[in-house]
Write a structure and sequence with these properties.
Length: 362
């Protein structure tokens, strides 16, 4: 007898926990009834913050977006209240990366045709019904969500819907840069971007991109690239402009002939004078509309000290047509043995000739 009473008490407690408070009322007329009010309560088992622990239309309008601390172990309790009674309560639970499931609960009138004013779902059984398995999620995914879509109906078939989505508190961050930011037609620039907390990344006009990366672009005209990084809640944009300028029609070429002076080898006393002729001819196609020079000759004869060491005979030629040039440095006078060193250079730019090994460095 004692065991029977104990079992009966357990059943009574389970029903009370499932149906909520055991207050029952007669079913009202439709015009006197109201839509049920849905509450989704959440606790962070083991610690953590929840912005709206008791989510309902008064605290967080549906669809409620509810941030939580990273790593919070959420456990939900879903309920619906109505002074005129609650007949059905159901919830569809979904979590990023996992299959969704549903939980349904239905009340019945008692012998006096009275109905409960509250239903509560505190767990599920895995097959659509109420059970002992907690409704919850471990909030570790920075771009994941945990959602409860809840429906409640009274005995006059008036239904309320409420949705709450929990997500790890954070903000989408992004950066975008172009290097170099200014180019000439036909040249390239590299876009580099990084994002955090983003579920999708798009760079217009290039299209969808990975969360972080780089890409080489060769625009024909000045182009602004706009990155849009989104998660399910918010988005942020960053822009980078690659300016495509007109190639200059003329420019300068500077440089010189470098050599090592050895008095014991080359002789000479006091000061020395080295004559070098620099000659250049445009190799690439002429620039349309440019009237700049397509060849030049510069003769430099500086007077240098006779001390041993590095020496240089500099030159500069300007108002040259831009492009690729064939340039020669030729020693034509002085104590150095005569020598001609060819090279290829770009205007505008520079070129350095090395007398010792007859090489050049553009």
């Amino acid at each position: 007898m004692r065991n029977f009473r104990y079992r009966w008490m357990l059943v009574t407690l389970l029903v009370f926990a499932t149906l909520g408070c055991d207050q029952r009322v007669p079913i009202p007329a439709p015009e006197q009834d109201a839509n049920p009010i849905i509450h989704v309560g959440a606790v962070a088992s083991g610690g953590g913050e929840i912005k709206v622990p008791d989510a309902h239309t008064g605290s967080c309008a549906s669809p409620c977006k509810n941030p939580v601390s990273t790593g919070a172990q959420l456990v939900l309790s879903i309920s619906a209240q109505n002074p005129g009674g609650v007949k059905y309560l159901s919830a569809v639970i979904s979590e990023t990366g996992k299959p969704s499931y549903s939980v349904q609960l239905e009340s019945q009138p008692d012998k006096q045709n009275r109905v409960p004013t509250q239903l509560t779902i505190a767990g599920h059984n895995g097959t659509g019904g109420v059970g002992n398995t907690p409704i919850g999620a471990k909030m570790n995914n920075p771009i994941g969500t945990f959602t409860a879509l809840v429906s409640a109906t009274n005995y006059n078939d008036m239904t309320s819907l409420y949705t709450v989505t929990y997500y790890v508190d954070g903000h989408v961050q992004a950066s975008l840069a172009a290097s170099p930011a200014s180019i000439y037609p036909g040249d390239s620039s590299t876009l580099t971007w990084n994002t955090t907390h983003a579920t999708s990344v798009r760079i217009d006009p290039l299209g969808t991109q990975p969360p972080s990366g780089s890409k080489t672009v060769t625009p024909n005209a000045t182009t602004t690239y706009t990155l849009t990084a989104k998660d399910w809640l918010e988005s942020t944009t960053k822009s980078a402009t690659v300016t495509v300028g007109e190639r200059p029609k003329e420019g300068c070429l500077a440089g010189g002939l470098n050599f090592v002076w050895d008095p014991g080898r080359y002789g000479g006393t006091g000061e020395i004078t080295v004559g070098v002729r620099f000659h250049g001819t445009l190799k690439s196609a002429p620039v349309s509309g440019s009237t700049a020079a397509m060849q030049f000759t510069k003769t430099e004869s500086p007077t240098l000290s006779n001390y041993a060491g590095y020496k240089a005979v500099p030159f500069q030629a300007c108002q040259l047509m831009t492009g690729t040039w064939a340039v020669t440095a030729e020693v034509i006078s002085g104590p150095l043995p005569k020598r001609s060193i060819p090279c290829t250079a770009i205007v505008p730019g520079s070129v350095e000739f090395n007398y010792e090994d007859s090489t050049c460095l553009p």
